[in-house]
Amino acid sequence: MSVLGSASPVRSVVNRRSALVALALLAVAGCGGSVVAGEPHWDYDAEGPDHWADLDRGYATCRAGHAQSPIALDSPTEIHPTDHIEVDYRPVSAVTLLNNGHTIQASVPAESGNAIVVDGTRFTLTQFHFHLPSEHTVDGDEAAMELHLVHTAPSGRLAVLAVLLRAADDPTPLSRVLAASPAHPGRTEAVAAVDPREFLPVDLAQFRYQGSLTTPPCTEGVEWTVLRHSTAVSVTDIDNYRAMFPHSNRPTQPRYGRPVVLAGGN
Ligand SMILES: [Zn+2]
Question: Does the predicted TM-score (pTM) go above 0.90?
Fold first, then answer.
């Protein structure tokens, strides 16, 4: 059943009230990252991935798109060892964490100079955020969490570098960030001296494919690079994150014949 767009006057009053409630929640959640003020409500439960396209006409691509993310990465069709992206990361003096109601998102100042180079185009790191459990799978396995480092080209195109995070006993370089996560939607917290290089595995072997945002509006044309090898995230950090966001992963989507290239590596 469609949540919006009913012709019934009674229903439309209810819908309007729901919309106002949703707007009020969004006002609390703030307007950073994936939550934009006025954005129709979506979540991973009652209004979860199977229903996103019903929530707003602007979300139609979530169902109609044929280049959606995430996908299962278990059968690379092409191996291009030298066709890897370049990672040009360096320390950042400070990032700002926001609990936007869907994830913990860290804003990275563009002046920090962090970037990736994809097929000759430089994409600047603007933010990173988390999902639990992972969204992509590698050889059929999901990881405890997934880190998405989001980059923007001057044209506005997006490129995401994804890192699968496996559970480990000890604190990791992500612990300082995750331990500072604001538990309440709309709250922010600054974390000084963050080095995104520490979030990556040594071996940068990578799956590359054309996909989409994994959250509404599921916009396509996103350059995806998913590192083949995981890095560690502590069990304590996972448990704390799960207490804020019990699950936040979109299921894997059909490939529809899209090529997946396996590139790079040591
Ligand atoms: Zn993401």
Answer: no
